[in-house]
From TrEMBL:
Organism: Granulicatella balaenopterae
Official protein name in the record: Zinc-finger of transposase IS204/IS1001/IS1096/IS1165
All residue ranges annotated as the Transposase IS204/IS1001/IS1096/IS1165 zinc-finger domain in the record: 44-93
UniProtKB keywords: Metal-binding, Zinc, Zinc-finger
The UniProt record lists the keyword Secreted: no
A GO term for molecular function: zinc ion binding
A Pfam family this chain is assigned to: Zn_ribbon_ISL3
Domain of life: Bacteria
Length: 127
């Protein structure tokens, strides 16, 4: 993983690992785009559902889930992050939850930085 790629894409979450060898230039929705690939995983402190602390392997890894996140454009091209998120299972309540990152809100596929940029653009147009 390259630290410069994280800076280039403005990814500051230490739980996100980028795979530089998989970063590619592809056509998405008829436009030339940059697609970076990465993974987010960590050891959860507690279950999101029941609050059970992660002691004595009460929360275990249980597969992954993939999502494509829209990032700010780079070099005039649309930029996406194909992020593999770790899934977890709580042995106490038998429910599942997915690793989260501060790049994007829960259940959303548009990066927070994109939302802020759009809001800034709208604010500038009204002033």
């Amino acid at each position: 993983m390259s630290h410069s790629t994280q800076i280039f894409l403005q990814i500051k979450d230490p739980n996100v690992t980028l795979y530089d060898e998989l970063t590619e230039e592809v056509v998405v929705k008829g436009k030339k785009s940059i697609v970076a690939h990465g993974k987010v995983t960590y050891k959860p402190k507690a279950c999101e559902h029941c609050g059970c602390k992660n002691e004595h392997f009460s929360i275990v890894k249980h597969g992954t889930r993939s999502s494509t996140i829209t990032l700010l454009p780079c070099s005039g091209m649309d930029t996406y992050l194909k992020l593999i998120k770790q899934r977890f299972k709580c042995k106490h309540c038998k429910k599942f939850f997915t690793a989260e990152t501060d790049i994007v809100d829960k259940n959303c596929f548009i990066a927070k930085s994109v939302k802020l940029h759009v809001a800034d653009q709208l604010f500038d147009e009204f002033t």
